[in-house]
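Why show two proteins at once? Because comparison is the fastest way to build intuition. When a single record is shown, students tend to memorize it. When two are placed side by side, the eye starts asking what differs. So, the first record is below.
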Amino acid sequence: MNPMATPEQTQTQVCYRHPRNETAVSCSNCGRPICTDCMVFSAVGIKCPECAGQPTGTKRAATRVRAAASEGTGFSVTNALIVANIAAYLVQASGGGTFTNPAGEIFQKGYLRAFEVGAGEWWRLITYGFLHGSPIHLLFNMLMLWWFGRALEALLGRGRFLAVYFLSILAGAAGALLLSPTNPTIGASGAVFGILGAGLVLERNRINVFGGSALFIVIFNLAFSFTVSYISIGSHIGGLVGGALTVLVLSRFGKGHAVYGRFDLAAAAGLLAIGVVSVAIAYLRVRGYA
């Protein structure tokens, strides 16, 4: 037993990897509470698996995913989303547009703008996230999705990763309508920023996603957003907030573990609330524009 534990800690501490398991023992290195399943006995005390360097928990999950990827079966959601975005661009180019200027019929029916959403075309809150304005625009977003989406999917799993992605699209739509309601908005960057926001929250909770550099990546990309013209800052900020909130809900705002925590009714209700609030913000913003 940890000799420094207080009576209050003994009663309320739960394992950081298994939130349902109460414990009075903490890692001698990082101080996080650990249950009997997670204890690693070393010459300098009891450590958690991460501090002990054992490939368990998230590291083991990442290893399994990397092994699956080498066999062509890993990162299925990330791969599917990339294929969906590329397919949507090809449909744009063939539906009244061209490969270098895909602003044809599909583009006209799918981009995000307050006038159209206010007229009842609510599908645009999602479809805008699968349209792109040029091959460079598509390539940049798909590279970002490939680099960062794989890492997050490996850690969270398919279902939770999908929740981050699509809730970030909705939150990005709300942000775009708030800051630039009359400008057409397209692109997967809102969802990509949601992935970065999720990674930032996880790394702030000592769960390595992007090699410990999530904060730098977020700051760099936000700075890039503010310095380059024709970028939807609202979509980027909204997506960032949406992804961060999604992971916070999955971890019960720090009371559980976003990766190992049980997905229950409270988590489902929290995710639903993010989507509902995003749509509500969009609705309130577009009133009067139709």
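Second record. Ask yourself what differs from the first in the token line.
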Amino acid sequence: MEKTKRKFSTKEIVCMGMFCALAYAVMALSKLIPVSIAGFLNFDFKDFVIAICGFLFGPLPAIIVTVIVSLIEMITISSTGPIGLLMNVLSTCAFVVPAALFYRSKRKFSSAVVGLILGIVCMAIIMVLWNWLITPLYMGVPRETVVGMLLPVFLPFNLIKGAINAAITLLLYHPIVSALRKANLVPQSTSKAPKKKGLSLGVTLVSIFVIISLVLVVLAWTGII
């Protein structure tokens, strides 16, 4: 039996290009944040853009956007070369692919939340493993030094990074999708269920609270406050 090849419509390609541009812009702005963990771990918030792309179009477009943005980052403003490219792709895909797959199974708010939580966990575990493998070679330090950083540094860093991206995803998903629907780039919702304004307000408030709380944690962790 022949496998059916995934074909993208013109609108999907246009949207993927828009998500690439937006993700790159967010990544570039993230570089301006004067906060780093252990002197070399910097927060990058492009993952929420790619997660929204994954929710809309599925995991494959999200992977394509991830690779394109990471490649452009490598040849423009990154100084970490192919290793940085590899780690960027692994980190983002580990976050967005589980979220997109789970949300695809049933498109409702609870599925989005569970999918994002799965993405946070997957990213944290995968990046701990890959930092154990790659960081000693990249930084030229003994593996024992990196092992001592896995739980106190790499694990909480990726959990916080994933949680902030997840909260921003929930906060901005509907405004971005609504804008794309007004531009007729994505189909209108077929759901006939009435909108629940209380739920939207609750999601907004919780998302903002999570973002502010995690930002304060990072500032306290780095000694800024």
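One difference worth noting in the second protein: The radius of gyration is 18 Å.
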